[in-house]
Amino acid sequence: MVVIDELLVKTCKNMIKTILFCLAEATKGTIYRIGPPPELQVIRVTSGVRVEGTDEIRWGLPSSSDYNYPGKSWEQYQDKPGRVLEAMGWCVEKQKSWTADNPYEDVRSVGKQLRGEIEDFHHMEPVLVRKADLYGESASSIEYPYDWQGYPIWQDTDYVVAAVIKIHFLPHAIKRDDRSTLVIQELSRSLGTELLTLHFREHLYRAQKDFARQRLHSCEILAHELRNAFIKFGFIFSAVNAVVGILREEWEARIREAVPELEWKDSILAKLNRILASRMATSELASGCQAAARTLMADQEELASVSILPSQAEQWIRNKIQPKWRRLMGDCPAWDEDRPEIEHLIEDLFHAIGLGMDQELIARLNHVPDEIREQWPRLVYSHFTGDHAHLLGDLIRLLNHPEMKLLHKHQYAKAFRSFKALAEVVPEVEERANRIILSLRYGHPTEAQTFQYLDAMPVTEESHERMKRDGESLALSE
What we know:
This protein has about 475 residues and is α+β, with helices and mostly antiparallel strands. It has 17 helices and six strands.
């Protein structure tokens, strides 16, 4: 973690600076981080060298060192028979300091002595942290590393080693248990406290990051489920339009009664199908033409049986009826003689789908009250969506009109009242759900976040304004 690593380096630098300022004979300081058990990976964090004759400190790590990243694991530096002893192994395993007040005879500097290098006079101090403070209730489940004899270390102590401080001194300027070693020991406790604080900060950061990831995942699942639910709620208007289609048929039946000489789409489509059938019965018709004719006949039968809006019927004719007739007559000469009649019937079909909205025909319904004669066609030739939910109230009022003569009109009104209640509550539930999801996703609702939307279903302009007002209220309340 970049932030925590930077804080660790800064903390270690402050500790080295404090020790070098307190101890005039100290020349250099290095701090090593000890990783968690059982690996106990040792990595050099930072080093600081006093510029001779000044209080200035030069920072940096040597270009080559056994303890530079990735460092050394416990298996690589612990005491083992046949291995050169290291002071690091002593400090970590024994949780005790090591003072080299005679480097020429230091049993834990043999490695350098064999290479012809003489170690500085130095003191190494382990930084101890209480297990209970670091691990809490899980301290009993620590997996301890083992010494070379197979015995677990640290099992009988209340501490773990979190770091090791190494301070170099001028020749003959340090002795075991002298004032300098006691100062370093005391300051190591302060470093232990700061390292514990950093540990908690890192643990908290990771916990927050995990929580944020889980929260985002939960929001995505919730948004997906709500989106599916709102899509299903959208079928409310499919049901509304289906019932409105029945009322549209009832209205057209009134016009049929008043003007019986009119030719409607079902009769025109029946004539077109008879023309198809008359030629399909001949044995000379190719199989491809037979199949095309059957498909066209099925489309015309379906159009005759459904109650759809004139605009939808017009699209049906232009996209499914008219092109198929053209291809059929172009590929199959059997209908050449019928071409003028077919084209005339298709033109009549375009006119017939809008008869229910013809004002001249509507004016001939003298027995129907003016208000009903005005409202009935206006409503039943409307396409109901979320943006036109207010028309449901007009439909209910129409059905409740005392002069409205319609079988089962009270049942229709009851159904539309239920549809209206659902249509009004769904946008409200949707925008509140979106706001809750945003609050969960970002941790707290703010004005900017409240205006954001998930890739869910759109809301109306009115509900958007209401959501904006709610967001401002939330921001003010915080």
